[in-house]
């Protein structure tokens, strides 16, 4: 399918990043409306599809061009379902959720999250120690996976090829958006791999502990919380001319 050309793209986490400060979000969206260029939205969330759609409804968020859910283990392109299907097939290779569950059953302090999906296995961890124990057990049993720990509570075990960063890179490449001005925004551990991609990124001021010491040439640390932080990051990278980022 021919891909629509995109000049500016915001790829953002939802909870604690795009969502959380309603008035600031309104200002961010007004800023986007004031620009000559269209800003394409991609939401990249830890939530599953129904839960993300419910949040979009409840908060009255603009509907995105693409919704990446389940910490990057599912991809929903509303104009081209093929990309999501290909992503599913790609990450399923070597994915053994039952072995993940069996390893987790040996560890105290982990409670599996009830989810309507099979593309990830997630837990609530009582503390850091049991999360680490699970990571060690999965490694020593050579169970292929990606381990993601966020907010001192959530443990997501994803297929090896999944994650927010990998899913977003795949999307950008498939849609031929490499030359767009991309800003990536996040607040917690499940955003880390996408924040480290070679695109401008912003960590919002209210970020979780695990992102407090993250830095990089293309990482702007905002003072503002949630959407206020995104707007700060946007202006930092793009506003001088609101056209192309000097490369
Ligand atoms: C969201 C999801 C949860 C996940 C967490 C961290 O809260 O609802 O399932 O574990 O993000 O990625
Ligand atoms: Mg978040």
TrEMBL record:
InterPro entries from the UniProt entry: HAD-like_sf, HAD-SF_hydro_IIB, HAD_sf, SPP-like_dom, Sucrose_Phosphatase
Keyword Hydrolase: yes
Entries under SUPFAM superfamilies matching the protein: HAD-like
Residues annotated as signal peptide: none
Keywords in alphabetical order: Hydrolase
GO molecular function: hydrolase activity
Residue ranges of domain Sucrose phosphatase-like in the record: 8-237
NCBIfam families listed in its UniProt record: HAD-SF-IIB, SPP-subfamily
PANTHER family per the UniProt record, alphabetical: SUCROSE-PHOSPHATASE 2-RELATED (PTHR46521:SF4)
Protein name: HAD-IIB family hydrolase
Organism the protein comes from: Fictibacillus iocasae
